What does this fold into?
Amino acid sequence: MASERLSSEHGLDFEFTLRSDEVGERLDVIITNFLREQSEGGESGLSEGSLPSRSKIARWIEDGLVQVNYEVVSKSFRPGQGAIIQLRVPPPRPQLLLPDASVPLEIVFEDSELLVINKQAGLTVHPGAGQPAGTLVNGLVAHLGSSMQQVGDALRPGLVHRLDKDTSGLMVVAKTERSYHNLVSQFRPPRSIHRRYLALALGVPRQSGVDGRQGAIDLPIGRHPTDRTRMAVVEGGREAVTRWKVEEMFAHGTLLELELETGRTHQIRVHLSHLRSPIFGDLVYGHAIRPLPPQLAAEARRLGRQALHAARLSFLHPQSGERVEFQSDPPEDFLRALELFRVSK
It folds into this structure.
């Protein structure tokens, strides 16, 4: 959907033209899908954890906050080809983020403008419908104080990017509004934030025209057409580019270094799975392309997560303008699985 965010003092306003593949869908379904896609871009003012339910969207429609071709309609209305949809998203109710000093914070670097965190696997980054507390953000509020809640998004203060719950590694967090906007801008072309990951993959990405040791995956990503909790490579999805390079090759897999040029939800996991090289241990996208030896199959169950680690992070410091770089070794469970791959025949 091509969309335009409009200025508003009362929330967020959007205007977009209906895509041909959504002709015939109910209006509440269309709005639900649209807001989810907007949240993935990270620049709309919406976060995935604050997305409204369909019942709430239905109330918006009944209250006249949604119009089709500039007319109020019902939630079950099915717009036609080329319909113009206007949407006003009311401002969220203020939500108190409770500090939680028990959340583990491994701080790699900190100054007056930002922190760099080495996030552990299993730690959710920010509160959402399924987890209102005990997240990285709750730990950051405990560490930095209530003023942290004024930086950036109300539900994701200080966050300029995210890692999946079960992905470990480096994240940068803004401490001031100036640094927040500066860091967010570095994710836009020409990008000056660089993120490199290590992944244990069950194969090498199958691409034509590459030498088998490195390549670039340029495939659009959007919501899975039948399972809305997952992402997939889909026609008409958002641009997604992942560069990859083989670091080590084993009998049953590879150690890959990957660099993100875009930051779509589950991007690395989706791209590798689509090219028949899923990440070892991935419970959502990690279907094995061939049976694993018993010791590796047992290790995958023991690991219980994708073997993906954000190992390197570099960006221009918002205050000095100088490039800063950070590196993090994978955690013990990743290294244990890596040694098993090295010795398995």
Observations:
- The chain has three domains: 3-89, 107-185, 194-343.
